[in-house]
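Limitations

Structures in this collection are predictions, not experimental determinations, and the ligand pose is part of the prediction. Treat each record accordingly. The example that follows, with S-adenosylmethionine as the small molecule, is included so readers can see exactly what is and is not provided: the inputs are given verbatim, and the output is the predicted complex.
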Amino acid sequence: MNKENTSSKLITSLFDTGSLTRETTNILNSFDEIIQGVRPLNSRQLQQLPENIRNLSHQLTDDRASRRLGYMNDNIQLSSYVRYYTWWNLVRLTRLFANIPATVFPTSDCTCLDLGSGPLTVVTALWLARPELRKLKLTWYCLDVSANSMALGEDIFLSIAACTGEEPWHIVRVKGAFGTTIKQKANFLTCANMFNELDQASDMPPEFTTKKYYEQIQRYCENDAGVLLVEPGVPKAARTLSLLRTRFIKDGRTIAAPCPHAEECPMSGFKAYTGSKNKWCNFAFSTEDAPAKLQKLSVAAKLPKERATLSFIAVEHGHAELVSASPDTTSIRIASDKLRLPNYMCGYYACTRFGLALVRLPDENNKKLPKPPFRPQSGDLIQVKIKTPDSLPKDEKSGAVIIEI
Ligand SMILES: C[S@@+](CC[C@H](N)C(=O)[O-])C[C@H]1O[C@@H](n2cnc3c(N)ncnc32)[C@H](O)[C@@H]1O
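Predicted complex:
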């Protein structure tokens, strides 16, 4: 063990609930009551809700062939989606949005575009996660093939804005498919969980589809727009995001998160979606402090969730110069759950400018070695001082450089 070569410090966690206000946490905890106020279900419909959620889950995963493009227009499916998926997505997205750098978000009144907006989940999540943005006059173009889901989403957003007592952002709903012309170019573009659906409907590999996605995103945006793309943490979606990342970097853009460097992506998911062992970039958090009523509903729908995952890229607005760190200091991003290693050690895979790394530390039962300065979690950004990077040892199994903390 070559601990003398390194020292480390936790910079930020990706899913720290401490970054959410008490008001936001309260609204998330009672999201079911907000929907009930906007689009009530009677007691018989509420009784059937778990079963309908379960049926929808089949259509979104193992029975995709039976799903219609406009599935969100169907009242039962929309109601099930909003009361389960939107709620979980708000839990995921609020944590993420509250913990990524502010340089991604608008700083003045501007035009924003949310693609595959569904029930406006991203807009509502951003309102809840970043209260400082509420004072900006943002115009949100929301694009989706389903008009019904956006109409319900706008009612939910307005109801939540009313709870917070601030003037809501201006919403312009556009019914149409990805590629539909939008009147104004966006200074900020968001998209959550849509590319995954487009990929499911296509037999083409991400290497092909990404080119089209990137060109269309460019057409929608001003040159220096902030861009925030979030997808489920599955291999094909992560591969799509990694390929988009490469294109943004080639065009001189800065990825504010999750990437701690602009070198080649060491978790690019190349072929991971075909079952190969390549690692793909995704992050997870434990759902133990998710809203209790949402957890109960998930159990009733036989879809209990112990961890939530996602993949994402956040592109800074502007063409900022990369600030180079001092030669012996580097930032790394933890990108796996804990791995058990021999001799009371544990580890985590991490993304670094040296490529894939295996961060190694004594586990909780290790009485021989000093306790590590902190216990990492998936998504943590850590600053490490490495005196001689060239002398970092390598893990035989994965080829990753080993960093001791
Ligand atoms: C899984 S939902 C995500 C909704 C919302 N962004 C969220 O994260 O909760 C995917 C959305 O993409 C929409 N969608 C699917 N294909 C689309 C297309 N070609 N163009 C625009 N929207 C599309 C669906 O109607 C649906 O509302």
